[in-house]
Amino acid sequence: MRVVAESTDPVRISFLLALLRDAGLPCIVLDAHISAVEGGIGAFPRRIAVAAEDLAQARRVLREAGEAEA
Fold first, then answer.
1. What is the DSSP letter of 61?
2. Closest-CA residue to 25 (of 51, 64, 60)
3. What is the C-alpha to C-alpha distance for residues 58 and 61, in angstroms, rounded to an integer?
């Protein structure tokens, strides 16, 4: 698995997941349950990961959507 994006913003994470899934790319959110440890303050970013073989396509999809950071 390779990380393609990270954010502390749950809305942005949801948006990025939708972009990747709409493109047919399986993806997962890493650190999704860290809020139980951090107390829900949003200090730790959630990371979105895809399979290594999907990395180039995932980066292209995010870049085309204006998410160049990813």
1. H
2. 51
3. 5
Structural class in CATH, domain 2-64? alpha beta
Tokens at 46, concatenated: 């959630």
The pLDDT, as a whole number, for residue 39 is 65
Q: Which residue type, as a one-letter code, is found at position 61?
A: V
Q: What is the mean pLDDT of each run of 10 residues along the chain (70 residues)?
A: 93 96 96 72 86 97 83
Detail the DSSP E strand segments found in 8-43: 27-30
